[in-house]
């Protein structure tokens, strides 16, 4: 049986990680053989305690999400077969019930060998601004083929390897990867990936969204991801 390796980058993710891991438990109901690996960037809260108690493999030392994802794959390499699957998932994102059934059908379809799946963006906020942002993101994915990392990425190991994996960037490692995959090989999966809206609530939906667009435009014009990451955190 092909296995699924969930690779979750973390940094002080104690608030969201329990929900993320709880959402993955249903894999057992679909007879998926699944392993969880947390790639931590130096958490000082209870992140690692939560990961250990849940039975996750843990690696530490990489800094920046792209580097963490790449380190996670490298750490799992001895356990991976070419026909296994990788699920990259943020530590504040929860996959909705039924995801494992959809993932298994995706894995079992020979046409998906050189494709990658992503989930439908959603926020854990009930306000109208959240719904409008969700629509905008899903339009972007449909028209531009540009899902972000908070929508997860489900991809077979050998296809991931042929693409070269994630670059060790602190920002836009997800955009770089999906651009290499290509719009015609990205498949929207009919499952919501519910992500924390805390940053949008704290900074304001309009301000945060505008800042993200500016950063994306700068990236498209050639700005280095390290420089953009500093602007993102400011």
Question: What's the helix and strand layout?
Answer:
Blueprint (H helix, E strand, L loop, with lengths): L2 E8 L6 H8 L8 E8 L6 H7 L3 E4 L4 H12 L8 E4 L4 E3 L3 H10 L7 E8 L4 H17 L8 E4 H7 L9 H9 L4 E10 L2 H6 L1 H16 L4 H9 L1
Parallel strand pairs: 1-2, 1-4, 2-3, 6-8
Antiparallel strand pairs: 4-7, 5-8, 6-7
Helix pairs in contact: 9-10
Describe this structure in words.
The structure is a single chain. This protein is α/β, with parallel strands linked by helices and 234 residues long. It has an eight-stranded mixed beta sheet with strand order 3-2-1-4-7-6-8-5, with helices on both faces. Strand 2, helix 2 and strand 3 form a beta-alpha-beta unit. Helix 9 packs antiparallel against helix 10.
Can you tag this structure with a few keywords?
43% helix; 8-stranded mixed β-sheet; alpha/beta; 234 residues; 8 strands
Offer a concise description of the structure.
Helices cover 43% and strands 21% of the residues.
Secondary-structure element sequence? EHEHEHEEHEHEHHEHHH
Number of strand elements: 8
Number of helices: 10
Identify the overall geometry.
Answer: globular
Which structural class best describes the helix and strand composition? alpha/beta
The major β-sheet equals:
8 strands, mixed
Percent strand: 15-25%
Estimate percent helicity: 40-55%
Low-confidence regions: none
């Amino acid at each position: 049986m092909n296995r699924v390796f969930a690779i979750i980058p973390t940094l002080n993710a104690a608030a969201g990680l329990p929900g993320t891991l709880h959402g993955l438990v249903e894999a057992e109901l679909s007879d998926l053989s699944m392993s969880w690996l947390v790639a931590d960037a130096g958490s000082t809260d209870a992140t690692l305690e939560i990961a250990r108690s849940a039975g996750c493999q843990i690696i530490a030392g990489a800094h920046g999400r792209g580097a963490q994802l790449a380190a996670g794959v490298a750490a799992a390499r001895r356990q991976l077969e070419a026909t296994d699957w990788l699920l990259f998932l943020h530590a504040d994102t929860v996959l909705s019930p039924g995801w494992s059934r959809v993932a298994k059908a995706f894995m079992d379809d020979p046409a998906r060998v050189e494709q990658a799946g992503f989930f439908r963006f959603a926020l854990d906020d009930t306000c109208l601004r959240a719904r409008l942002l969700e629509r905008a993101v899903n339009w972007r994915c449909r028209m531009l083929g540009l899902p972000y990392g908070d929508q997860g990425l489900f991809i077979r190991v050998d296809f991931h390897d042929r693409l070269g994996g994630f670059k060790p960037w602190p920002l836009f490692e997800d955009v770089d990867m999906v651009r290499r995959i290509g719009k015609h090989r990205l498949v929207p999966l009919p499952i919501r990936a519910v992500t924390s809206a805390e940053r949008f609530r704290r900074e304001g939906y309009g301000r945060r969204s505008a800042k993200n667009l500016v950063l994306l435009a700068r990236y498209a014009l050639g700005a280095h991801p390290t420089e953009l990451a500093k602007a993102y955190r400011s």
